[in-house]
Give the backbone structure.
Amino acid sequence: MESRGYRWSRRAIGIVSLLLVAATVILGLWITPPDVVQGQLVRLIYVHPPVAWVAYLAYGVTSIGSILYLWKRTRNLKWDLLAAASAEVGVVFTGLTLITGSIWGRPAWGVWWTWDARLTTTALLFVLYLGYLALRRVPADSHQRAVRSSIAGLIAFIDVPIVHQSVVWWRTLHQGATVLNPSLSPKIHGEMAMTLLLGFISFTSVYAWMLMHRYQIAILEQKVLDAELDQLIEERRREPDSESRQARPTNDVGNFDQPSKV
Amino acid sequence: MNGYVEAGYLAVLGVLAGYSVLLVGRSRRMKKVLLPVKVKADREESRPTE
Amino acid sequence: MVQSVSDGADSSRPANMSKSKARVLPSKRRARRAWVALGIVVIAIGFLLYKGLGNSLVYFRTAAGAVRDRAQLGSSTFRLEGVVVPGSIHDTTSGVDFAVESSSVSVQVHDTANPPQLFQPNIPVVLVGHFSGSIFLSDQIMVKHSANYVAAHPDRVATVNGKKL
């Protein structure tokens, strides 16, 4: 069902994530100093860029999974399920990016929302991957769905570099990158920089835990689907006048560790 | 602090916690569904082939 | 080779097979919901592209650029960017008067909205409004924050906590 090693590493990552997030919150809310210009508002900077980074990372994993599925030599439904799992976690983090950005924007900029390039392309990113998830729910057999969504996932990923570079390519209200800016010179220092770094690490760890969990669910769902299909075919075979008597559908799900029943 | 900061942290922690609970619940439910299937499959396996 | 498992399977599901048994097999209702969701997404993408192309390509005009194109801009509404000139800020009954500057070209601003809390001299702002003669009438001030973060009173905090992190 689920290997012991997988379960244990997932639990370990879960515990580590909890501790890391707790440390980020304590440092971010109480230990770090207020900013010269922003005052207390600067504290949101320890969560907003990290959750945005996780969204990029998640969509990167979705793209890798999609490529590995589309490439015939590595084709395995597991890659498609991994891509889907990562996309769902990515959507959660993109949502959080929009929410935290909006909460910071209201006091700092004076508006909850504005149609500058960074905000618009981020909203587009959110919607594109919602579309990816919706597309996956359109009925199709596993292979068809995998091909379809792999292509969609790769197309949606085009927006990720656009989001990141939007503050360079266009005039935006949103500030440029603090760390990964074109000159690669961080504009944050000392304990503030350390806390930001910790934020990146802890939310990445949370992502890893969520991905492992979501991926496991996808695998289990696929197994249940296969079992249900088997049952359905069994029942149809038993119908005496069945015109639809047919061979087992070649809805091959790749090499799962499921015992072959033929 | 100033309300916004708290709201931001609360949103992040709340959404992540909520999603985590959802994931744990879903995987438990899936495992439960799969249990009888697995048992049936094992039983069929041990049966001599037709 | 691959047949459409879902639709056929669903419509010909034997009556004696209880619905609750199928947990992940797509049902017609689920399929319809998926299509509706996709439709909404497509509409949302269209809306975002429309908003993006209409606003983000030229999100703001700099003070210098706006002064140069003033004749052409007329009294149309646009976003104006510049740095708040120190010493130019005067509170009025309805808002605040000040000047913004870019490339040493300054524009006098008459604002009728409450400025956000970070509004201060020397900070870059984006204003929404239009020209009236040589004065820019603004009804919204947005503070354009830089990507720099500097600790306020770093020494005090360090002593309070007893150690540097």
Summary: The helical segments of chain C are 5-11, 28-56, 63-68, 70-73, 154-161.
